[in-house]
Automatic annotation (TrEMBL):
Keywords: Phosphoprotein. Coiled coil: none annotated. It comes from the Bacteria. The modification 4-aspartylphosphate is found at residue 53. Residues 1-120 form the Response regulatory domain. Transmembrane segments: none annotated. Gene3D superfamilies: 3.40.50.2300. Signal peptide: none annotated. This is Response regulator. InterPro entries: CheY-like_superfamily, Sig_transdc_resp-reg_receiver, TCS_response_regulator. The keyword Phosphoprotein applies. It comes from Flavobacterium psychroterrae. Pfam families: Response_reg (PF00072). PANTHER family: RESPONSE REGULATOR RCP1, RESPONSE REGULATOR RCP1-RELATED.
Length: 121
């Protein structure tokens, strides 16, 4: 599992939720989507799914998703948008771009755990 988000606090909360759900789940995280995409392209990083924030500097989530879906060996990786937005037009756009789901970040830790549980393999 891969989590891409430029907010360090969100990364820590996400990691804590994953650790709470399963002590065996393996995950990586990046604060820079460009670096994550490069590692995936090189094959030095593999993942079963990507949780992707949309609002990031340097390369935003839309740009990452578009480039990932153009890569033959990477385009089948499920991408779950994980963002503060709840805008239905943004949801529709990312789903049409190839994201498998769109989750709005909850404010409560228990809600986050409940939201993430179905995605833990």
């Amino acid at each position: 599992m891969l989590f891409i988000d430029d907010d360090e606090e969100d990364l820590q909360i996400f990691q804590a939720a994953l650790d709470h759900i399963s002590s065996t789940v393996k995950y990586n995280y990046f604060t820079d989507a460009r670096k994550a995409l490069n590692e995936l392209r090189l094959g030095s990083l593999t993942t079963q799914a990507i949780f992707l924030d949309l609002n990031m500097p340097l390369m935003n989530g839309h740009e990452f998703l578009a480039q990932l879906k153009q890569e033959e060996k990477l385009k089948e990786i499920p991408v779950i948008i994980f963002t503060t937005s709840s805008d239905s037009s943004i949801r529709e756009m990312t789903i049409s771009m190839g994201a498998v789901d769109f989750l709005t970040k909850p404010n409560d830790f228990k809600d986050l755990i409940a939201l993430l549980k179905p995605f833990i393999f």
